[in-house]
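Dear colleagues,

As part of the handover before I leave the project, I'm documenting each prediction I ran so the next person doesn't have to rerun anything. This entry is a single chain, and its sequence is reproduced below.
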Amino acid sequence: MQGEIVQFNCSEFKSHRATQSDIKIAMNLRSSNKILAQAAIILFFFWVIALILLTRPLLNNQQSEVSNDVLQRLSKAVSELESLKVRNQELQWILTNFSHEAQSGKINENVVERLRSTLEDKIRVPISFGGLEKKLTDGPSKEYEVKRRAIYRGVQEIWYFVQQELEKLKKKGHDQNAPELASLIQEILNSGKEHEIVLLNDLQELSSMEGHDAWRTTESRALSDLVQRRLHYLQNPVDCSKARKLVCNLNKSCGYGCQIHHAAYCFIMAYATKRTLILNSKKWRYHRGGWEKVFLPLSDTCTDPSGLDRSNWPGTNETQVIELPIVDMLSPRPPFLPLAIPRDLSDRMIRLHGDPQVWWIGQFMKYLLRYQPETQKMLDQAKEKMNFKMPVVGVHVRRTDKVGTEAAFHSIDEYMLFVADFFNKLEMKEKVPVRRVYLASDDPSVLPEAKKKYPDYEFLGDVSIAKGAAVATRYTDSSLRGILVDIHMLAHSDHLVCTFSSQVCRLAYEIMQTLHPDASSKFKSLDDIYYYGGQGPHQQTAIYSHKGHRTGEISMEVGDVLGIAGNHWDGYSKGINERTKQSGLYPSFKAVDKYNIVDFPVYSEVAVAA
């Protein structure tokens, strides 16, 4: 058998099932065959002994040695027969357990590998499953992953629509003094919400049952590792004096989240132009010692902004040093601004992640926001002190200077509706001992209000952080520590409830993407969809036609490009049909994101891991 390969075809193995009567007959035949085989072995054994005894006097010393050898071989043969019997029982047990796992739908590459290694160990023959293990290791197709996530979002969108329409009817019932009708509608809303929760849980469970979670984790790490190695290569040239550089001044007249997004914009521009980023952070408003007092340096080999020649953006390809303005003043605007994604990685990103545009930005945050040991220690201590444990929902309530200018006021009750949704959904699957919430805000009154209104929840947070986030005290060391803690805890929460009009909320969401294979659905924004300040156009493509029949609706045909302005979270999005120039509402489920896939450098100097 040496060198042979045993082939197992799972479909054939599954289809050849015996009836109960066949099994009984087979078992009886097997039992009879065993008895006959054992009897034959015993008779053969006694025959050999008798033959040896009868011929012993006729044999010389050499013949005696031969007979001893025969006896030894016979003894070994009997022993091997017993070993084969035991091995057969072991193989039957292995295959029975394997078939049970296959029938349960939980077969994956780990099960296949375990089966193969066990069989090879037992029968000492190479095993192949006809490409089954390779198929599982390769993971699902891009089309499958995109459709799976679309179904999940579709369930959410249909519930947004039904809920909003029923709320309108309930309000009419109250207005028309029909409390029974309003009560009935509320019962329907409660029941409908449970249906939505069960559907979403089933979809998540189905996603984990089909055996591709291991691939998602592996692919997420591999793709992130590739981007991080490219960034390290870019930031650490062999000779800094000859390196092409992009200089970016960190200080921008805005808050912490805005400044971090400014630094990330500079980093994306550096990657796209293949220039080492030099971040000028002297006398940074948030820390007078500069960026390196809080985070690790962006480079180990090149922090000198000087060069033979320099120019403001855009310069030329030969200009050694280019100074970059803030994104608001950038001219000309290149195609690789957010929300663009690189062509050479786009297929892998779209296959892996529900929002590849955010995943891409998250990778730059991952490299930028590598903490100094002292910063990491401070965050770890804060986490331990407040007893930060899972499960936990991160809530960010932005007030102060945002309200009335860039965002509307939202009460704590609006946030807590979605916190309750998360825990209700979780409790359908498992027991939740504590409903825990990390509450961050720039308004010191929010945390005490939440604790008073919702005694059944455990709230984590620090009022002093909220006080430090006020405009008057924003640029202090204590304020910096507070915002670092808030963003860290929000990003490490199981779910995020906030307003995407806030830079802090969006930053936490971007960092969250680096902590999971796909955290694109782990949020609820009370206002905007995700966006990046200074971004290029955010477009969608119509996948179903629609005839506008309500006031404010627009019509569209399959393939129409839509410039999306926002999702109203009621089943409708707002935007402009770029073909007809109509502006208004359209059903959210009838359009999907149109990714801006752009040619970035491919960094052939950085090997793709096998």
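The CA atoms of residues 529 and 566 lie 6 Å apart. The chain has four domains: 142-210, 220-366, 372-525, 539-598.

All the best with the project,
I.
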